[in-house]
Amino acid sequence: MISDMLPPDFKIISSLRYDPALAAIGKQRAAKTSPDALSTPYYLLPYHQERLRNAATCFTWERALAYLEQDTNEFVKFLDTFIPDNTKPWRLRIVMDRMGTCEVEVNPATSMDPLNLLLPSDTSPQTTIWRVYIDSEHIAPSVFTTHKTTARDFYTAARLRSGIVSLLEQAEVLLVNPAGDIMEGSITTPYFRRRNTAGEEGGPAWITPPVSSGGNAGTTRHYALAEGFCTERTIAATDLVDGEECWLSNGVRGFIRGKIVLMRSNDLQT
């Protein structure tokens, strides 16, 4: 059993943004799914609950799963007790152990246009472009790549191999599985322009790697798929082009513009 082989300090986690502006911007768009994932100041909270439930199920943590089955409104009340000032944005890190004990770490969130939390478009209000590298090594998919947990050493190693030494850097590295396919980013979900194939027409303009490639079933990924922004497609690392534009996303920063960097001389141009 997987749970019997885990270290005693192993926990499942999910990071998200608290932003009082969500109440206003959530009304600017019509949700395609129910419940509406943007109905609280906690960005995509129903998807974070689902992510944690899926992890608890995978590791057979019955007490944790029972706690996570609570109504979203009740979970909001619990999270509210950790917010120092409900007029400011915050970064929350929800951490849960096998006994169902839930801890919430809260830190000030980086200032940003709250519209970046919505699905991106060609007119999205962003001028910042992150450098996006491809890891030089392959990583085997496992329950630790599928679910977000405290076992994150391989993400840190991939970032260091790409020269990324701080979470404050506007840079990301894409993980690659043994088959040579893109799994995900070290802290984000990536999206690429659709590669049209013969006889294929219509559909979303963007694609993202399927979970079967080994990456994390992220919350913003869930949102992007549910709202029709993208579709799943296996993406070979060798298909990516130097200078290619892409999107990145996570539960704290929303959606971010990116550019593939294969030739390091391009770092001077971004």
UniProtKB/TrEMBL annotation:
Lineage: Eukaryota, Fungi, Dikarya, Ascomycota, Pezizomycotina
One Pfam family, short name: Aminotran_4
Record Gene3D superfamilies: 3.30.470.10, D-amino Acid Aminotransferase, subunit A, domain 2
Transmembrane segments: none
Record-level Gene Ontology MF annotations: catalytic activity
Protein name: Aminodeoxychorismate lyase
Organism: Aspergillus carbonarius (strain ITEM 5010)
